[in-house]
Amino acid sequence: RVVVHGGRTGCAAGSVSEPTDIVISLERMNAIEEVDSIGHAVVVQAGVILEALQSRVAEDDLFLPLDLGARGSCTVGGNIATNAGGVNVIRYGMVRNLVLGLEIVLPDGGVISSMKRMLKDNSGYDLKQLFIGSEGTLGVVTRAILKLEPAFSRRDTALAAVASFKDVTRLLSLSKSRLGASLTSYELMWGDYYRAVTTGLGVRSPVDATHEFYVLIETESCDGEAGRDIFMELLEKAISDGLIKDGVFAQSEQERREIWRIRDDFEPILREKPVYLFDVSMPIQTMDRYIDTVRRGLASVSRDAILHVFGHIGDGNLHLFVHPGAGEIASGGETRKRVEACVYEPLREIEGSVSAEHGIGREKKRWLSVSRSANEIAMMKTLKRSIDPKNILNPGVVFDL
Amino acid sequence: RVVVHGGRTGCAAGSVSEPTDIVISLERMNAIEEVDSIGHAVVVQAGVILEALQSRVAEDDLFLPLDLGARGSCTVGGNIATNAGGVNVIRYGMVRNLVLGLEIVLPDGGVISSMKRMLKDNSGYDLKQLFIGSEGTLGVVTRAILKLEPAFSRRDTALAAVASFKDVTRLLSLSKSRLGASLTSYELMWGDYYRAVTTGLGVRSPVDATHEFYVLIETESCDGEAGRDIFMELLEKAISDGLIKDGVFAQSEQERREIWRIRDDFEPILREKPVYLFDVSMPIQTMDRYIDTVRRGLASVSRDAILHVFGHIGDGNLHLFVHPGAGEIASGGETRKRVEACVYEPLREIEGSVSAEHGIGREKKRWLSVSRSANEIAMMKTLKRSIDPKNILNPGVVFDL
User: Fold this and answer.
1) Closest by alpha carbon to A96, among B294, B100, B240, B241?
2) pLDDT tens, residue by residue, A338-397
3) Does the model's ipTM exceed the 0.85 cut?
4) A122 closest CB neighbour out of B38, B83, B352
5) Could you count the other beta carbons within 10 Å of the beta carbon of residue A386?
6) Partner A contacted by B151 (CB < 8 A)
7) Strand A99-105 and strand A140-147: pairing?
8) pLDDT, tens digit, for every residue of A263-311?
9) Within 10 A of A58 (CB to CB), how many other CB atoms are there?
10) Inter-chain contact B229–A229, Cβ cutoff 8 Å?
11) pTM for the full predicted model
12) Given an 8 Å threshold on Cβ–Cβ distance, is B118 in contact with A386?
């Protein structure tokens, strides 16, 4: 049994090993082999730390459109093996969309080298797609060629308070149609989350803290002041339409960082242990009702359960933090199972997913059937058996054979 | 043996049937089931004609970011089965990037229904990726959910004459960095192609017709005059830097269509039969040298061979039209093989692909090894055998088992 280690920052227990397992660390395969500034691509080994790669390509005025909280320790190989998401998916897609070429070592030691750098290549099955996001169960990612973009010249950020979820979706539609592809983030914080983080961090809230919802909107543009002007016009329109009740536009990188800190630094929410983190996705029009359903379910599990929510809602992705309240330790884990049921079961009806970006790992495999039909899971097992017939690679991750 | 028919507009003989084959036509599965104007997605059956879908979503101020010459007769199912490309790939990617959900009928009659509409879903292997672009050999695409974008409000188009290939790549880099994601087309015509089409169609060339290269640049924007202003600034900068020698900016939809007609309507090139059409891709920095190599090779095959080239070069994709000159009919097909060798063999060294967007079909399968290693082809066959053990679906397409 072979378990591969990247930066070990995964959130779904996907690279946990047992005492008798062989662990392969890719830590020393950390070369950035080539930055192709004409073709806008970079050739990397799997062990490169994401942040190191971001910095290196920036030296050539290029931009890697992948960013996530674990940037300082996660590796590119792990990002590919788990099809990582992050904060720019609304504009650039998941890691899958950035992988031009891939080198994979198979369970029998054979090497699949598809290290091409073209955007377009329809010569037979696109094999790399099968390995991206397979969580170490089909092959070992060793090298890759990733797509780059030209560095953008300016970034503008606003924080807006919104009165209802319906207005949140209206503001999203308006933002998409006015900002087009310059819209790179549309992050929603529920009011409880916003207040818990601002109070817990002891930071001054830049807008009135009593609203129902807070949206962080960010744009990237390449065109002097024009990008900001378009963004400002959107905000003025949204205010005059009543979609935005209160707001602030970052006037400096310092102010931008203060706004992002409220979204990123959920440390205050983790203080009262235990806290269970969830990563679900669903059609955006079902989100509001879904959260109500979860909230009601949690109340029936524990009278003092606490739910905090934020999400990359432009991508249909919510992160839920649940503190189950008192009584957890006494129940020996039964509470956790009941909390999971509250979060996952309502996804069946609305055709949601138990994992938007974190993956299934070992942690969620018993909930896989919420997102995937029996035929889909049977096909996954067929593929696993044909590529890894001895079940060597990361057995027990995603599903049990 | 089962062959599936969509619009039968493929360019690689991928849906050719033999007298004893069973043909499945999806012509009557042509419902557009739902346009989701909040979630920006559309639920369609496989037999929907691409142009009908484009028109339908436009009624809801939405935009399907897929367009190609066969729009009036190709079907969405065929577009997915072949991972179609087209004229907007530089901005929106191939069809693969637009498929949120997919329903597939397997060779044993089982149905894989992954009809989810979220941008993010990492719950297990992303099975649909394996079927997209598999050219009817692994399953039958019956329904899909495709991603939509808000309709853009303006489109601007320019035609620029450029003196050298190096300047073509410089202009591309400048365009990408100045225009960002509003750049939707960057189409290059070699001078010979440009002159053959304008002369053959009897149209007045909007710019001097004696230049080496002609680039069609198009942008989409959502923001009044600002988009055009940014585009004009780019063009002025490129002219003052000497990258553009001559140019025209379309002042009306009529003028825009006249420019596109030169790029699209290659009928004059097809007049002298036979003409072989090729669809190759390669790293952009190798393109110029590659075309020189092909030209030299063709000259050794036939003294009067004619080569015309245009391409979606922002995507690394070139289309070559070769008229082998006199003597073809006499040689009984040998000339064609020699022409194919001239076009495909030089791709090995530069790590190019024998098919950027048309697919392998039956036509190119003997050249598959130029683009793919023995291990890659072996893996394709492993997958084919595990999903279609009786080799029922489109046997003999992509490879022979």
Assistant:
1) B100
2) 999 999 999 999 999 999 999 999 999 999 999 999 999 999 999 999 999 999 999 999
3) yes
4) B83
5) 15
6) yes
7) antiparallel
8) 988 899 998 888 999 999 999 999 999 999 999 999 998 888 999 999 9
9) 12
10) no
11) 0.94
12) no
